[in-house]
Specification:
single chain, 77 residues, four-stranded antiparallel sheet, two-stranded antiparallel ribbon, globular
Length: 77
């Protein structure tokens, strides 16, 4: 099973909650202080990534901890 992650970076408030929950998949940009989805691809402030089963629980935790609610998840089989 895989999970798709959608990150609406344009609305990020730079709180660092995603990085604290999962340092392997998220980081904060030194340029503008907003989060970056490592391995994500996209344009116009929205990036997507496909996460494999091993990271499933972690991805859900990250989405739940985001106070701006800009991280969305969806299950793909």
């Amino acid at each position: 099973m895989t999970i798709s992650v959608l990150h609406i970076r344009a609305k990020c408030i730079g709180c660092n909650a995603c990085v604290e929950a999962d340092r392997g998949r998220w980081r904060i940009s030194r340029k503008d202080g907003k989060s970056i989805l490592i391995g994500g691809h996209g344009k116009k402030g929205i990036s997507r990534a496909v996460i494999h089963g091993e990271e499933h629980a972690l991805v859900l935790k990250v989405a739940a901890t985001c106070p701006a609610r800009i991280i969305k998840t969806g299950i793909r089989i």
